[in-house]
Design brief:
By secondary structure, the chain is mainly alpha-helical. It folds into 3 domains: about 180 residues, MFS general substrate transporter like domains (Growth Hormone, Chain: A); about 45 residues; about 200 residues, MFS general substrate transporter like domains (Growth Hormone, Chain: A, Up-down Bundle). Helices cover about 80% and strands about 0% of the residues. The protein contains 17 helices and no strands. The longest helix is centred in the middle third of the chain and has 31 residues. It is globular and about 60 Å long. The two termini are about 35 Å apart. Keywords: Cell membrane, Membrane, Transmembrane, Transmembrane helix, Transport. Its main location: membrane. This is MFS transporter. It is found in: Cell membrane.
């Protein structure tokens, strides 16, 4: 339920943004912070919360995340202007960051090692279903209620999740090292500044906006590396990145999720502006991808308990690359079947990458570093998706209406690179 709340909220807010902006009489540029505040908060807090999970146990971090997310959802419901709503969304992002930072670490605690693939496959299924139904849920709620209920519905669901979680989530033995607040601050600043700089470059913002953010990211990152040198469990897990299997799995994740970001931001424009489909039709066409991901992910998770993740992930990402090429080569007036089978091919490929890659990341880290590894899972996903979305914006700036097609070709290249990184794990 926690994962569903965090995933649904992103899709719901994206879908409802025009309605919210109109109701609060806000220009689009200001209303975008309702989305950006959430994403920046999640990215900035994920690694610090993962490190905190290694110290106090993932149970406490997860429960605290659900509680904060629920309270912040209530504030979102009552917000009467964009600044207050954006601030409440940032609080939601912190809560979601706490949940997602230790989510996979909890799965590793719950499932025995020989069935870990099934556990991460189930997690991928839940994420895929939530992502698929998000736009539909938003549309149905907006049809019968005002936009504050999009956030208000999280309150009873969050309370119910706490009721289920309190007796059920396993406890773990706390680690002897302490939590470093200064390192947490440097980590948060580094990643928030990096994401802000990437977005600014994609929007072709002036150097007066891009350069300070880039310099801040570099300075804070260098200070972070200096401060945590020699630490047995560094917050930025450079110790794990020295492990070839872990590093290749992280690279695979970033490039694969960059493909997803390129696709999910560009395809609505492609369907509506290039293929001239209406918004409702576009929503149904977009659903084919996550629905097939939800079907394929549990199957891939079970297979990863018997076959090398590098092989399964590589084959899946090769399918994803082929699907992106097929979408870019759609005829001028394609039928629904022409579009759906291509979207389904992408979904099958992505589904066969996700669960095996999660298992490879978690199983290549020692048990005492499960929190750090779980944090990398979330950060890799968000960095990839954010980079993909930024590249789409850049494509539109440079190529106009043809930018959506260019983004699909970039996605095919990114998925191909991810497949190479995945297959490389067979020789590690």
């Amino acid at each position: 339920m926690g994962v569903v709340l965090a995933t649904l909220d992103t899709a719901i807010a994206n879908t409802a943004l025009p309605t919210i902006a109109a109701d609060l009489q806000s220009p689009a540029a200001a209303a975008i912070w309702i989305i950006n505040a959430y994403q920046l908060a999640v990215v900035a807090t994920m690694l610090p919360f993962a490190a905190l999970g290694d110290v106090v146990g993932p149970r406490r971090v997860f429960l605290g995340g659900i509680a904060l997310f629920t309270v912040a959802s209530l504030v979102c419901t009552l917000a009467g202007n964009v600044p207050l709503l954006a601030a409440a969304r940032a609080l939601q992002g912190i809560g979601a960051g706490a949940m997602m930072s230790v989510n996979i670490a909890l799965i590793r605690l719950i499932y025995p090692a020989e069935r870990l693939g099934r556990g991460v496959g189930m997690n991928a299924l839940v994420v895929g279903v939530a992502f698929a139904v998000g736009p539909t849920v938003a549309s149905l709620l907006l049809a019968v209620a005002d936009w504050p209920w999009l956030f208000g519905i999280n309150v009873p669901l969050g309370l119910l999740a706490i009721v289920f979680a309190w007796p059920a989530i396993p406890r773990s033995v706390p680690r002897p090292h302490r939590f470093d607040l200064v390192t947490a601050g440097l980590t948060a600043v580094s990643f928030a500044a990096l994401i802000f700089a990437l977005g600014s470059v994609a929007q072709l913002a002036g150097w007066g906006q891009v350069l300070p953010a880039a310099v801040l990211a570099l300075v804070a990152g260098a200070a972070l590396l200096w401060r945590q040198r020699g630490h047995p469990a560094p917050m930025l897990p450079v110790d794990l990145l020295r492990r070839p299997m872990f590093a290749l799995s992280a690279v695979t994740a970033v490039t694969a999720f960059a493909t997803q970001g390129l696709a999910f931001v560009s395809l609505p424009f492609y369907f509506e502006q290039v293929l001239h489909r209406d918004a409702v039709h576009t929503g149904f066409l977009m659903t084919a991808w996550p629905v097939v991901v939800a079907i394929a992910a549990p199957v891939a998770g079970r297979l990863s308990d018997r076959h090398p993740p590098g092989l399964l992930g590589g084959l899946g990402l090769a399918l994803l690359s082929a699907g992106m090429v097929a979408l870019a080569l759609l005829p001028a007036q394609p039928s629904v079947v022409d579009i759906v089978w291509r979207m389904a091919l992408c979904g099958a490929g992505f589904g066969f990458f996700q669960a095996p890659n999660l298992k490879a990341l978690m199983s290549s880290a020692p048990p005492e570093r499960s929190g750090g590894a779980s944090g990398v899972v979330g950060v890799a996903r968000l960095l990839g998706q954010t980079s993909g979305a930024a590249l789409v914006a850049l494509c539109f700036h440079l190529a106009g209406i043809a930018g959506s097609t260019a983004a699909l070709w970039l996605g095919a290249i990114s998925a191909g690179l991810a497949a190479v990184a995945s297959f490389a794990r067979l020789w590690v």
